[in-house]
C-alpha cells in the first residue's frame, strides 16, 4: 500500500514510530508514514507527548491531509474525541449577549450635532493659527 490508497477523512490504525516535542510519527503501513502534530493529539494543552505515547503503540487516528509531493500524511486523534466544551457555549451565560438594551442609532443621532460642533471648532482653531 502507499499514500494513494488512503483518503482524507479515513480512520486508520497506526503504529507510533517516533516521538518529538512537536508531534508523533506513525506508520500506516510499510510504505506510508504520518505525523500527528501536537495540536492534533487532544483538546487542550499537551505538555509532554512522551507521557502519552510509547514507540510501538498502536492507535486509531483520522487522516487530515495527504501531501502528494512527499507522500506524508497528517493525522489527528483530536478529531475522534468529543470536545469537552463548545467555544461559544458561554455566550448564553454572559448577560451582555442577546440582551436588548434599547440603545440604538438614537444615541448617535443625539450626539451627532455635538460632534459636528466640536469638529468645526477644531478646524476653525487650526485656520486661526
From TrEMBL:
InterPro entries for this protein: NA-bd_OB-fold, Ribos_protein_bS1-like, S1_domain
Pfam family, one: S1
Segments forming domain S1 motif: 9-78
GO molecular function (one): structural constituent of ribosome
Gene3D superfamilies xref list: Nucleic acid-binding proteins (2.40.50.140)
BP term (GO), one: translation
Top-level taxon in the UniProt lineage: Bacteria
Purpose: Binds mRNA; thus facilitating recognition of the initiation point. It is needed to translate mRNA with a short Shine-Dalgarno (SD) purine-rich sequence.
Name of the protein in its database record: General stress protein 13
Record organism: Atopostipes suicloacalis DSM 15692
Lineage of the species this protein comes from: Bacteria, Bacillati, Bacillota, Bacilli, Lactobacillales
Amino acid at each position: 500500500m502507499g499514500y494513494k490508497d488512503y483518503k482524507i477523512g479515513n480512520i486508520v490504525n497506526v503504529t507510533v514510530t517516533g516521538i518529538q516535542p512537536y508531534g508523533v510519527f506513525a506508520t500506516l503501513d510499510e510504505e506510508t508514514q504520518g505525523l500527528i502534530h501536537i495540536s492534533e493529539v487532544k483538546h487542550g494543552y499537551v505538555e509532554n507527548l512522551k507521557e502519552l505515547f510509547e514507540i510501538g503503540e498502536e492507535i486509531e487516528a483520522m487522516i487530515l491531509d495527504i501531501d502528494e509531493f512527499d507522500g506524508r500524511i497528517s493525522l489527528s486523534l483530536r478529531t475522534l474525541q468529543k470536545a469537552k466544551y463548545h467555544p461559544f457555549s458561554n455566550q448564553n451565560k454572559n448577560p451582555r449577549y442577546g440582551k436588548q438594551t434599547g440603545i440604538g442609532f438614537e444615541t448617535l443621532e443625539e450626539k451627532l450635532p455635538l460632534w459636528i460642533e466640536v469638529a468645526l471648532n477644531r478646524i476653525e482653531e487650526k485656520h486661526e493659527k
